[in-house]
Structure formats: structure tokens, C-alpha cells
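Dear H.,

Thanks for agreeing to be a second pair of eyes. The structure we're designing against is below in C-alpha cell form, covering all 62 positions.
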């Protein structure tokens, strides 16, 4: 799996995908949904902590 991800180029989803197909995009209003920018591992851990998720390995990742 690691070699597969190493082969894939990193892209900015917003500029490389969404901005290139604006005619095909739609917006829907939703409720009880939050946004989390998980661009870095610490952000993922922060969200898990905020949600009260406690995994055995989490102290090692901090």
C-alpha cells in the first residue's frame, strides 16, 4: 500500500478537481454536519479527541 501511495501525485482537490468542473457542481444545505480539515495527522487526532474517541495508541501519536 505504501508503494502505491508513493506513486500517486499529491493534488489540491479544490483547484485540481472542483474548479475544473464548476458547471457540474451543486450545493445542498445540510444540518448537523461539521467540517474538519484533516490536512495534518494532529488535526485528525484533535477531532477524535473532541468526539471523545480514546484509542490505546493515541497517547503514542501525540
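And this is the sequence the design step returned. I haven't edited it by hand at all.
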Amino acid at each position: 500500500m505504501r508503494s502505491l501511495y508513493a506513486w500517486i501525485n499529491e493534488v489540491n482537490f479544490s483547484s485540481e478537481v472542483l474548479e475544473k468542473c464548476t458547471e457540474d457542481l451543486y450545493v445542498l444545505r445540510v444540518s448537523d454536519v461539521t467540517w474538519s480539515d484533516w490536512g495534518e495527522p494532529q488535526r485528525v487526532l484533535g477531532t477524535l479527541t473532541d468526539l471523545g474517541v480514546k484509542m490505546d495508541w493515541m497517547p503514542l501519536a501525540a
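Two observations from my side: The mean pLDDT is 88. The CA atoms of residues 18 and 25 lie 8 Å apart.

Warmly,
E.
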